[in-house]
Amino acid sequence: MTKHALITGITGQDGAYLAKLLLEKGYRVHGLVARRSSDTRWRLRELGIESDIVFLDGDLSDGTALQRAVVKARPDEIYNLAAQSFVATSWDQPITTGIVDGLGVTHLLEAIRQFSPETRFYQASTSEMFGLIRADRQDENTPFYPRSPYGVAKLYGHWITVNYRESFGLHASSGILFNHESPLRGIEFVTRKVTDAAARIKLGRQRELRLGNIDAKRDWGFAGDYVEAMWLMLQQDKADDYVVATGVTTTVRDMCRIAFECLELDYRDYVVIDPAYFRPAEVDVLLGNPAKAERVLGWQPKTSLENLIRMMVEADLRRVAKE
């Protein structure tokens, strides 16, 4: 029998890659989309899958809409990827972030509990929940200390998922994903900001790139690899939480170097440190330990940072050249 999946946030980077993966596995894919005046489906078109998706109206702030979506889709699996996911914006919109990234998860879990308790649920947690880190490498047992409204809201979403799993027996898992990037990443995120700027500078469309703390360290992987871990979690007999990461940390400075070297440029000639881009509460280092995901799920990242950045630079170079 054909499996049905419902993906919230299907128009985002992870939603698009996950939808492609599930379609390749023979799923009927339903996508929850909020009505917007701007074009939000361009990533699905980029992957050539827009026409294969069944779209349902709704967003995480509307519990009734989520109930309708669950009843209509009758999903075997739900992947909750929708979020206000930009850390800097969460400082400007802390209440909206709390409603969508925190309370919205409860709306969705309640819809499952009441209308489809056999549905398996995936919650997109984040390494930003670790924040002020308590261990050199963060795993599933590392204490959380979020340093932004985004991290705090996501932590609520994470713990309410654990509570519904333990209290109601739902097959509800959380993936604590470290930074994962791709050519489909939003331009507001630092990796795309860097690769887009490198392309524009190479083509003479831009003169400099302004950044904040370029000595911050992150564990970066490819989103196309990470969505496979999401799927694997929901194929397990027992629901659980998993860190998904590469286990390698790199500074923003080195990421800039790699991106500019792809175009035979020296980042030091173009990057300008601007205090306006520093966070109110910085997270200096994030480094994941994916040992549990490797052991239990059999998952490992396939794409190196160098290949990922090159992929993004080449995509941005093509995109900018067409403008």
TrEMBL record:
GO terms for biological process: 'de novo' GDP-L-fucose biosynthetic process. It is an enzyme of class 4 (lyase). The keyword NADP applies. The keyword Cytoplasm does not apply. It catalyses: GDP-alpha-D-mannose = GDP-4-dehydro-alpha-D-rhamnose + H2O. Keywords: Lyase, NADP. Residues 6-312 form the NAD(P)-binding domain. InterPro entries: GDP_Man_deHydtase (IPR006368), NAD(P)-bd_dom (IPR016040), NAD(P)-bd_dom_sf (IPR036291). Its EC number is 4.2.1.47. Its cofactor is NADP(+). GO terms for molecular function: GDP-mannose 4,6-dehydratase activity; NADP+ binding. Catalyzes the conversion of GDP-D-mannose to GDP-4-dehydro-6-deoxy-D-mannose. PANTHER family: GDP-MANNOSE 4,6 DEHYDRATASE, GDP-MANNOSE 4,6-DEHYDRATASE. Belongs to the NAD(P)-dependent epimerase/dehydratase family. GDP-mannose 4,6-dehydratase subfamily. This is GDP-mannose 4,6-dehydratase. It comes from Pseudomonas indica. The gene is gmd.
